[in-house]
Design brief:
Its cofactor is Zn(2+). The protein contains 28 helices and 31 strands. It starts with a strand and ends with a helix.
């Protein structure tokens, strides 16, 4: 028997010639359709020097068109050609021979040529062996580890991460989302481990060939896409949850972190039950496991029945995790469990419509968290947070549509970005608000029922929602959801609505155009038209509860914006305010008189009658419009003056997000002193109202006030407001004086980021080393991230350089998935910025190899550069650097483009606005 080993996707394949294939399309041929997989995987975790797996897969498939080729995906797998078999299921004895095999590395194709034609309508069984090392790259079937504190030994485990296209790294398969099929998974492993997969265990029996090994067979799954298959071999323990609907629910973690699973074990079942009511469909599987993985590239992954998480996204410690950490755990769990319906039960046909998964899960998660923890008021926080992100990202010409063409596998991962998640969620919220709850729910339920266990695209969703909107009379019959929503999902960007009032006639003329940060792009070139639901209220009404549209801005059949006039508006002494509760993704620019009427109410009137989200909106709109020159900075800065009266979280969040962008530029100029004094003056009233850094959290009833105090404390210490810095240092010194600092920490949990960073910034190398030791000794992921971000706050150049070196040296204790937090902490430090920039540019080849193949993680190192570069010379230098190092920035094309565009808009701002802002700030200090 001739033995031919193939390392698929390798160019040096033993005995195999890589001929130019006649088939070179990036999608699989459509001649075959998988009906069922039997997957057997034997995992070896005993020898740390030889962590590997081997197995075989039986694929039952139907032939849809006559063919002499079988093409499927396989990457970096060793395949013994001589052991591949193919038989006709209708004739058990008939086996087929192969005339050859071919590898097409560009598309990860493994092609088998059959000696005779396979006939349409027939069902065949293909059996293939495979083997590979458990890789270190956090994708496919890979290794992870943790340190056992009792024995001080490394414990190994295996886990999968297949989304978007990495099942092919674990076994040969049809690795596209629309090739759904049931799976029977059987795992082989040493008996001291656990085996987990999507389904419950069916049978465990001894491995007859390897002593102390067992085979664990799982029940057959429902039809699933390959990217949702999951399995793990580990020595974890679990916390069970009790569910009245009989779904087995378990939460898994390494044994020395199992006590941190209590919160997740409580939240998960509650959210699952809410979704069953919301969607009108019971959770389709008999069990669900959620598991915290020490090394995990994604935040979490929604594998059907076996949801995987980074530790920070699942584990919660009441002694170490802040309210923000707790909210993140609830939000991520709610997101992943929403996927069990949106993404798993109904899956997009192709990655073009990834947003149907991610946008929906993001939006529905906010409903789920709000349902189980209404006291957090998290729905408003999430909505505003998403809007603030998208207003920035989608104002770049280099942004992209929510639904975008994907023509290469390496383009898929770029779509897992803020446009798919946050913009997708934002336009769904908009639709929910203009449709109303009944019609929105009805449309969603019909869509899920119609396409259960199948695949869909966004037009299918629009059909279900249009039907419901007309049934509940939420939309006129002449309107349909597709026409409205295509304007939001198929084109890039969002509009600015310009409102010019005729005060004597009681009317207003509205126009729209795309809002762009790059002011070099002429208005005539901006184009675009959006169907905009117009909600608004007046000074007399002040009705912010009604978010439904009173009118629409419409587009012609050719996509041109139609003029819009609104009448019946109040006279010259009353303001109007558009976009009630920011229900829609657009910016509003009023005429100067209307702005001044609004500012007068904020500064002198009953400002709290304006909805808190709309107060945040006015701040954001005014500062954006000033940034790009649509408004004078005097108006924006006058509006900000009202913040001395503001006591709510959302407006302050909006203000700080915008002020941070100005600070990133002005902080590197001679006028920073005045900016600092201006911020001190602005922050003092709210800092004193919240009792500074004093530990008053137990007395705070409204939970978002905890977030406000945390955020204000952070800014107050940065700008040395009142007693902030000495108070933080006193807390830190008290911690350092503790005899057992790893067991007792007197720093208030919600202030730890501020206290650590402030004390490291104003401290010495002994303070730094103390915190680094706490990092290495910590057993809580949230605490470790807080420390990582704080260590970068030092102003000691040698310590910053030392920290950068530690960041990319895994043996020092910073896991690859966390390296970006350390790097960003240095790069956002005004002293560390240039050090980090030089380090990145000098070591780009090394950094690329460090992250490869998950280059998305490398792109997260770029925001500090884009946000703090504002000199033409620095922009030119970085642009030249990008041109010269294309090979080490492969896969980051979108991120690089957006980085350069953001730098350019900063250069424009410095040239246009720096002088005016400096004058405005000086005048406000002297008031």
């Amino acid at each position: 028997m001739r033995l031919l080993l193939l390392l698929v996707s390798s160019w040096a394949v033993l005995g195999l010639a890589l001929a130019d294939s006649s088939y070179n399309y990036f999608r699989l041929p459509t001649a075959l359709r998988p009906l069922k997989y039997n997957l057997r995987v034997l995992t070896h975790l005993e020898d740390p020097e030889n962590l590997r797996f081997e197995g075989n897969v039986k694929i039952l498939f139907k032939v849809l068109e006559n063919t002499k080729n079988i093409t499927l995906h396989s990457k970096n797998l060793t395949i013994d050609n001589s052991l591949i078999t193919l038989r006709d299921t209708s004739s058990a004895n008939k086996k087929y021979c192969f005339s050859g095999t071919e590898v097409i590395p560009a598309h990860d194709f493994f092609v088998m040529r059959i000696c005779e034609e396979l006939v349409a309508g027939q069902v065949y069984e293909l059996t293939m062996p495979f083997a590979a090392d458990l890789n270190r790259q956090l994708e496919g079937y890979y290794r992870s580890s943790y340190n056992d504190p009792e024995t001080n030994k490394t414990r190994w485990l295996s886990i999968t991460q297949f989304e978007p296209a990495s099942a092919r790294l674990a076994f040969p398969c049809f690795d596209e989302p629309n090739y759904k099929a049931p799976f029977v998974v059987t795992l082989g492993y040493h008996k001291r481990f656990n085996g987990l997969s999507n389904m419950p265990v069916k049978e465990i029996k001894p491995n007859e060939q390897i002593a102390d090994y067992i085979w664990c067979e799982f029940e057959e799954s429902v039809p699933m896409s390959t990217y949702l298959i999951a399995y793990s071999v580990n020595d974890f323990t679990h916390k069970p949850s009790t569910l009245p609907n009989s779904t087995l629910f378990r939460t898994w973690a390494r044994p020395n972190a199992i006590e941190q699973c209590d919160y997740a074990a409580e939240v998960g079942p509650k959210v699952l039950q809410y979704y069953e009511e919301l969607f009108g469909i019971k959770f389709p599987l008999p069990k669900i496991d959620q598991i915290a993985i020490p090394d995990f590239s994604a935040g979490a992954m929604e594998n059907w029945g076996l949801v995987t998480y980074r530790e920070i996204a699942l584990l919660y410690s009441a002694k170490h995790s802040s309210l923000a950490d707790k909210q993140r755990v609830a939000s991520v769990i709610a997101h992943e469990l929403a996927h069990q319906w949106f993404g798993n039960l109904v899956t997009m046909k192709w990655w073009t419509d990834l947003w149907l998964n991610e946008g929906f899960a993001t939006y529905v998660a906010s409903l789920g968290v709000d349902k189980i923890n209404p006291e957090w008021r998290s729905m408003a926080q999430e909505s505003l947070s998403n809007l603030l992100v998208i207003f920035r990202k989608d104002a770049l010409e280099s942004s992209h549509p929510i639904s975008r063409p994907i023509e290469l596998v390496n383009e898929i991962s770029e779509s897992f970005d803020q446009i798919s998640y946050q913009k997708g969620s934002t336009v769904l919220r908009m639709m929910h608000m203009f449709m109303g709850d009944d019609s929105f729910r009805s449309g969603i339920q019909n869509y899920l029922q119609k396409f259960s266990y199948g695949n869909a695209e966004q037009d299918n969703l629009w059909e279900s929602l249009t039907e419901a909107a007309h049934k509940f009379k939420a939309l006129p019959k002449s309107f349909d959801i597709k026409r409205i929503m295509d304007s939001w999902t198929l084109q890039t960007g969002y509009p600015i609505i310009n409102i010019t009032r005729d005060y004597s006639a009681g009317s207003a003329k509205l126009s729209q155009e795309r809002y762009l940060l790059n002011t070099q792009i002429l208005r005539a070139q901006r184009g675009g038209c959006w169907w905009v639901p117009l909600s608004y209220t007046t000074q007399a009404e002040q009705d912010f509860a009604n978010t439904g549209p009173k009118a629409w801005m419409e587009c012609s059949s050719s996509g041109e914006a139609l003029p819009k006039t609104i009448s019946g508006l109040p006279g010259k002494d009353q303001w109007i305010l558009f976009n009630t509760q920011m229900s829609t993704l657009y910016k509003v620019n009023y005429d100067e008189r209307n702005w001044k009427l609004l500012i007068d109410t904020l500064i002198n009137g009953d400002f709290e009658r304006i909805h808190v989200i709309n107060r945040a909106q006015l701040i954001d709109d005014a500062l954006y419009l000033a940034w790009t020159g649509e408004q004078n900075y005097d108006i924006a800065m006058q509006l900000l003056e009202y913040l001395r009266r503001e006591r709510e979280y959302l407006p302050w969040k909006s203000a700080f997000e915008n002020l941070k962008r100005i600070k990133n530029i002005i902080g590197q100029t001679p006028n920073f002193e005045f900016f600092k004094r201006y911020l001190q003056k602005l922050i003092v009233p709210i800092y004193e109202h919240l009792n500074g850094l004093n530990d008053t959290f137990i007395d705070i009833e409204q939970q978002d006030q905890v977030l406000l105090k945390t955020m204000v404390g952070n800014w107050a210490c940065q700008y040395q407001v009142a007693d902030c810095v000495p108070t933080a240092q006193a807390y830190y010194q008290a911690w350092r004086n503790e005899p057992e600092p790893d067991k007792r920490n007197p720093v208030p949990i919600n202030l730890r980021q501020t206290v650590y960073c402030t004390s490291i910034r104003h401290g010495n190398d002994v303070d730094w080393q103390f915190l680094w030791t706490r990092y290495k000794n910590s057993n809580v992921a949230a605490e470790k991230r807080t420390i990582l971000s704080s260590l970068g706050c030092t102003r000691e150049v040698w310590l910053l350089q030392h920290y950068l070196a530690l960041t990319f040296e895994p043996k020092q204790g910073i896991r690859k998935q966390d390296s970006m937090w350390a790097f960003q902490a240095v790069a956002y430090n005004e002293i560390g910025f240039h050090l980090a920039r030089d380090y990145f540019m000098t070591n780009v080849d090394f950094i690329y190899k460090f992250y490869n193949p998950i280059t998305k993680d490398m792109s997260r190192l770029l925001p500090p550069f884009s946000e703090q570069t504002f000199l033409q010379s620095d922009f030119d230098e970085f642009r030249n650097f990008v041109t010269e190092h294309r090979s080490s920035l492969k896969g980051l094309e979108q991120a690089i483009q957006q980085t350069l565009e953001t730098m350019l808009t900063n250069v424009q701002w410095k040239n246009r606005n720096y002088g005016q802002v400096s004058v405005s700030i000086r005048s406000l200090i002297d008031k």
